[in-house]
Write a structure and sequence with these properties.
Blueprint (H helix, E strand, L loop, with lengths): L1 H24 L2 H4 L3 H23 L10 H26 L9 H31 L2
């Protein structure tokens, strides 16, 4: 079961990476206002799944502590920290127009989509855990 889950996490990051490459090449981030939101959602799902897998199912920590609360906390904490780091990275590169009034709205919606992705990932992981335990 661990390997199947890790394969799904790996497949998702490949999809996110290839989608990002295509989107950059074809200027999809600039053509479609919602594309950045989609990518943040997918990134949140990937980070949430990976963090929950790494913490609870990789063998570093006992699966016994993989409670619903802990899965949600691990996913959310990872996404908030790395999502915040991503926003700082964008700001430092000048990718985000910090002078625009919409900058705070952009950051807010990015965090919202990251968080929603983490909650989707947590729900999936909880379902995976329930299925594994036969609950």
């Amino acid at each position: 079961m661990r390997k199947i889950l890790l394969d799904k996490v790996a497949l998702l990051i490949v999809v996110v990476f290839l989608t990002h490459l295509v989107a950059t090449f074809f200027y999809l981030y600039w053509r479609f206002w919602w594309f950045d939101l989609l990518m943040h959602l997918l990134g949140g799902v990937w980070l949430g799944l990976f963090s929950a897998w790494f913490v609870f199912f990789s063998g570093y920590v006992s699966e016994r502590v993989a409670t619903r609360r802990n899965i949600v906390l691990a996913s959310l904490l990872t996404v908030v920290v790395l999502g915040g780091g991503w926003e700082v990275f964008e700001y430092s590169l000048g990718v985000a127009d910090s002078a625009a009034q919409s900058y705070s709205a952009d950051v807010s919606t990015d965090f919202l989509m990251d968080t929603l992705g983490a909650l989707i990932a947590s729900s999936y992981m909880i379902g995976f855990l329930s299925k594994k335990k036969g609950v």
